[in-house]
Amino acid sequence: MNVFPNTVVTITFKLFDAGNRLIEEAGEPIAYLHGGHSGIFPKIEQALNHKKVGESISVTLEPVDAFGEYDAEMVRVEALANLPSDVTVGGHLIAEQDGQEVVWRVTDIADGKAVLDGNHELAGQRLRFDCTVLDIRPATKEEITHGHVHGAGGHHHH
Predict the structure, then answer these.
(1) What is the assigned CATH class of domain 7-67+123-146?
(2) What is the pTM of this model?
(3) pLDDT-based confidence at 80, cuts 50/70/90?
């Protein structure tokens, strides 16, 4: 079987930065629903089209293909008095902004203030995504309707 829309694809992957340093590696294989369901970056999905079990790809992702450009306007300084008492550097805060949930990373704390960054940690970076196809199966009607994988290696709910 080949990878095509509405198949569940199980992969193992490694993600590298522009300096060829390993950033992340799948400890366990991950499964996603192929075919534009937002389970994986579109450029990677495109490269996986028509692949078979055992085949591998290596895709360079520019910022626009992955986590976007770094946006300096997504950085703000807040008084510690306005934040939870357990806030620490490296921690995350979740807030609603313009009806959207935003995750703020705490990047620094000094002089009674915290620096919050709403950019993804990998925003503005060129990345390389290497993966190998471990399994391909037809998606169930329920998975297609819900737009994600159910069961082992996928999403659980209901």
Answers:
(1) alpha beta
(2) 0.81
(3) very high
